[in-house]
Amino acid sequence: MPHSIPPTGPKLALSRFAQRLLAARPELGAELADPQPFRRAEMLNALEGRADDELARGLRRLRNRVLLRVMARDLSGRAGLEEVCGTMTDLAEVAIESVLGEDDLIVIGMGKLGGRELNVSSDVDLVFLYRGSAEAQERYERAGRRLIRLLSEPTADGFVFRVDMRLRPYGDSGPLTCNFEALEQYFITQGREWERYAWLKARPLTVPGGAGAMRELDAIVRPFVFRKYLDYGTLGALRALHAEVRRDVERRELAEHVKLGPGGIREIEFIVQALQLVRGGRDPELRVRPTLAALKALSEKNLLPLQAARELGDAYVFLRRLEHRLQYLDDAQRHDLPQDAKDRARVAAMCGFTSWDVFYAQWRAIRESVSRHFLDVFAEPGAAPEPWPPHPRLAALRASQRYAALPEESRRRLERLVPALAHAAQATPDPEATLVRGVDLVEAIASRAAYLALLAEHPEALERVARMIASSSWAAEYVTRHPLLLDELLDDRLLYAPPDWISFSSSLKRQLAAAHDDTEQRMNILREMHQAQVFRLLAQDLAGLLTVEKLADQLSALADLMLQACIDEVWHDLRGRHREAPRFAVIGYGKLGGKELGYASDLDIIFLYDDDDERAPEVYARLAQRLNTWVSSRTSSGILFETDLELRPSGASGLLVSSIAAFERYQNESAWVWEHQALTRARYCAGDADVGDKFEAIRQRILTRQRDPKPLKAEILAMRDKLHAAHPNTSGLFDVKHDAGGMIDIEFAVQFLVLGFSSEFPSLTGNLGNIALLSMAADHGLVPAEPAERCRNAYREFRRIQHSLRLNGARYARVPRERVAAETAAVRMLWQAVFGRGANP
């Protein structure tokens, strides 16, 4: 069914206000023959150079002209809702600017004025602020009173806008103006939940002091409105606020109130603004003021289903245009449907319907749709709580000081949550382990109302978290350390969607830009977005949607992206930088270099640059040092990556960053064989691609160097013996990584083949991973095909075992020897073929 009001013909005669105005000022009829949009410049011209007495009259006569033309365009189908509201908002802004002139009072537009959604017969909700000491307050109050008088006092020409100042700190009992310091103090000590809702749309209309004042004001308002983390606790507060509004509606018999009644404009705004308050602290893109723009943003981020967003958007347009037609009757601030039959006919006709009954049926259908979506967001979860099941951990939780110290609302949520967790645990293969892990999580979040609210408000999220923690103790520990990730469990479509790195990178850049120069906030954004993406990959992994190899590829791609973002942020902040973009690159070794990264892998990295500027060594040294700090420091949101920088030239005693020339010289003249082994699994990860290309060219030259196989073999075997001795295993189990016949034997065999034969077969230098390189070596006749293929499968199985054990908290990847007897036998065959002896003892 269509939710927008059909286009109308010329129906201006249906407005009593329009007819009265035209009778009093017939010259205005000339503007209606072909009514054009009323632009801001035309409004300013109409008011130019007027003194107070002339300004009051000029403003009122201008307001009548604007309203008449807006009505004519709206009722003839020439103007949509955006134009109508935008024109009325322009009128309010022009009026305020004209009255204030050079005065430096700061005027904040609240509500619909703040959202540029002003209706045609609206109040303007204002807050007056100023910068500086409280001694200046009297002067600003005089300016504020003058503004109110010139806008709202009725004269023979009417009024401009009714002014409502009740949203200022302390409401009617508070001073008319306050400075920034007083506003901040009020938010900290007195600010209530409904005021966060009110200030969400707040928009400075006049800001003497420009960008600096805007930033100062934003730093006060934003933390009050938008919590740093997900704020599901706000749903309960807004639910209570809405219930209070509903009771007032019933008491005053306002069931057919277009704004406040069930399924009315206010319910749409509650839905939108509640979701904005929940998530806007983390996502700046949700901090948009206009309702329709916010609906679009919520839909694009899958926070509202697309169909729900469309229905709510269509309903909002319908109801706002209906609101305007009610006000067109007499220029009265009304929102209730008329009882008079003639007025009903007028409203139905202005809305484009053939009769009141047809209109009313459409209106009721729209109200029911809005109410349904409202309940989807705000419905109270569950019935009365069940008793907690008998369990020592649960008894200890209830008897704990932590439980006793919880606010009443949090205890109520916990009373519902624990039985639901126990039920969810029963549906998993090991209910006892799941319940214990779940209680660990509940204990970790018990004092954080937002996370309790999230799980209490969304039973489906609780079921998903139960399945995840049942599958993996590592997953349970990860989400317990980072409860912010619980939000990821709300939408299967996002949780299980393949990564879109372009979209992820764009979103990351937007959020970092919105944090401006706040270093800690930017570092936390990097960590939180990385954790969220790792969590999505973890969910897909546990659901069986990713092979170990594909998971490692995705984690490695994510690490590259985060390194690039860190380079960009650090370089932006770096003082004394001598060029627009750094000629600097991060090179990955080991698991990062081989694209075999795991969930908790360190990053083995080195830093290179290619820049002849005399300042380059010092600048890039500072860049490398700060980059490592950004990556490896622990903030309130955790750590991004542990890093290992010891593979740089000369190791821990060498410079933190090397020039390309120095790196090549070291590799040619000083590097040990094991350092050339490491180059077989090294690649450019982030930074300047040209520097990366130069690194790859050096790597190719080193790896394709002619080598004598006999001393090379002796060097690699000696290194393998040394590594084996460093990882003793007396457990009686087989260590799939370090023991003879395991993963490292396969890796050393491949590295020998690459170093020994790339001069003859340059394709072996490709950073393709051990499995692909074994196949290539067999194709070149360097190893027999059968042990090569068996070792390819063995390496896959070893990685799968290692991955599975680590997901369940194992410190070492060790299994009974008989379980991998076929795989270790294959490795021994390969080792014999490559080195002429059995696998390393």
- Helical content stands at 55-70%
Shape: elongated
How far apart the termini lie comes to 77 Å
The total beta strand count reads 12
User: How much strand content do the residues show?
Assistant: 5-15%
3D structure, described in words:
With 841 residues, this protein is mainly α. Helices cover 59% and strands 6% of the residues. The protein has 36 helices and twelve strands. The strands form three sheets. Strands 1, 2, 3, 4 and 5 form a five-stranded mixed β-sheet that branches. Strands 6, 7, 8, 9 and 10 form a five-stranded mixed β-sheet that branches. A two-stranded antiparallel ribbon has the order 11-12. The radius of gyration is 34 Å and the shape is elongated. The N terminus is likely disordered.
Task: Describe, in short, the structure shown.
The chain is mainly alpha-helical and 841 residues long. The chain contains 36 helices and twelve strands.
What are the main properties of this structure?
mainly alpha, 841 residues
Topology:
Blueprint: H1 16-24, H2 40-47, H3 52-75, H4 81-100, E1 106-109, H5 111-114, E2 123-130, H6 137-152, E3 162-164, E4 177-179, H7 180-189, H8 193-199, E5 203-206, H9 210-225, H10 233-251, H11 265-279, H12 291-300, H13 306-328, H14 341-350, H15 356-378, H16 392-399, H17 401-404, H18 408-426, H19 431-445, H20 449-457, H21 459-471, H22 473-481, H23 492-495, H24 501-514, H25 519-542, H26 548-573, E6 584-589, H27 590-593, E7 603-609, H28 616-632, E8 643-644, E9 657-659, H29 660-669, H30 673-679, E10 683-687, H31 689-703, H32 709-725, E11 734-735, H33 743-757, H34 770-779, H35 785-807, E12 814-815, H36 821-835
Helix pairs in contact: 2-4, 3-4, 4-6, 7-9, 10-11, 10-20, 11-12, 11-15, 12-13, 13-15, 14-15, 18-19, 18-20, 18-21, 19-21, 19-22, 20-21, 21-22, 24-26, 25-26, 26-28, 29-31, 32-33, 33-34, 33-36, 34-35, 35-36
